[in-house]
Design a protein that fits this description.
single chain; elongated; four-stranded mixed beta sheet; 2 domains
Length: 360
């Protein structure tokens, strides 16, 4: 579309050089050439195409000239802010000043308030969380004879899910989810009471949250019925994990893994990171919470894999384990893969018979 403007090239570039905006240039040309119907968006594209990198070029000066230009810019900006009633850092979003005192060029000065990027905001938040997290004293534990590993995986809790007995046959909400998780952990601890527990494998994720955004959908956009706001569910899930982990530390050291899942792929990962920030000073916990779909943990001569199961076929689990955990696979006498959800066909045979599969 820019070819239409070639015949106005000299006029457009001169007006642009003089500091006029694309809107003003288009208005001027339409008044001068009323039958051509020019618009500011196309004028702007034309200028960019013709000037290329020079369109956003910054004028650089050195020595005394730089000091002179900087001083002049500061004086102009101070005068404008004073006359306009701006208060720097309070209600001034920014000031733009054109300096056209030189016949050879014009300079646009921009003074804007600092804008924090998402990455900087995230890093600052993590830094603050880590700074103010509680300190944990290292627990001196007795040597356990005939040690056992306790695996706790609160899968598909779906905090925030809403069900009613009228259409679902049973009721469910965030309060019921929280209570069931607490009761489930206590039940597993009671059942494991007769075994000498040496280590606990605690699995985060696996659709701990029901939705992944403020529009009440899963990560891929499937709408869901919810019992409260998304941020309330996130806070409740964090409190739940903190309470459970503090409880488990009274029994044994913990290895924590996170399984990515289809309902809360993003928020579930952020939740795991928030829990890590809370407990990162605790020497009784080790972590494996990156964004990989499957996690592996070697205990004694046993290799244990955990996954949500939505990403990958069931009959490919043995091959995935042998490739993704090569060293542990080679030195393990038993291997187990724990999956909590299988959206793909469950009626498949395993490619390798070495692995024991478990799923809910």
């Amino acid at each position: 579309m820019a070819y239409k403007y070639d015949k106005y090239k000299d006029e457009i570039l001169k007006l642009h050089h003089d500091g006029h905006s694309s809107r003003v240039i288009a208005k001027y040309l339409n008044k001068k050439y009323p039958n051509d119907n020019l618009n500011d968006s196309s004028v702007n594209k034309f200028i960019k195409r013709k000037l290329g990198d020079d369109y956003k070029a910054n004028f650089q000066f050195s020595g005394s000239k730089a000091a002179s230009q900087t001083s002049r810019a500061n004086n102009i900006v101070d005068e404008i802010m004073q006359n306009s009633g701006f208060t720097e850092g309070v209600n001034a979003k920014g000031v733009m000043v054109w300096d056209k005192s030189n016949k050879d060029y014009s300079i646009l000065y921009k003074m804007v308030k600092d804008v924090m990027s998402f990455d900087q905001m995230r890093d600052d938040m993590r830094g603050e969380l880590k700074k103010y997290t509680p300190n944990f004293k290292k627990i001196k534990r007795k040597v356990v004879k005939d040690p056992h590993l306790l695996v706790i995986d609160i899968a598909d809790l779906h905090i925030g899910k809403l069900c009613d007995t009228g259409d679902a046959g049973d009721s469910y909400n965030h309060e019921i989810a929280y209570q069931r998780a607490i009761e489930g952990v206590e039940g597993l601890l009671a059942k494991a009471n007769g075994f000498p527990i040496d280590k606990i494998l605690f699995v985060l994720g696996n659709d701990i949250l029901h939705t992944d955004n403020s529009t009440n959908t899963t990560t891929k956009g499937t709408g869901q019925d919810v019992s409260q706001k998304w941020f309330k569910n996130f806070e409740l899930a964090r409190k739940l994990y903190v309470k459970i982990i503090e409880r488990l530390l009274g029994f044994a050291d913990i290895h924590i893994v996170h399984n990515m899942s289809n309902h809360d792929y993003i928020s579930g990962y952020m939740l795991a990171d928030a829990v890590y920030c809370w407990f990162h000073k605790c020497k009784g916990i080790t972590w494996d919470i990156d964004a990989s779909d499957r996690k592996y943990f070697k205990y004694g001569s046993s290799l244990i894999g955990t996954a949500h199961g939505d990403n990958g076929k069931m009959d490919s689990l043995p091959l995935s384990m042998s490739m993704e955990a090569k060293e542990h696979w080679a030195t393990s006498s038993t291997t187990t893969s724990i999956c909590t959800t299988f959206i793909t066909n469950r009626n498949t045979s395993l490619a390798l018979e070495k692995i024991c599969k478990e799923f809910l």
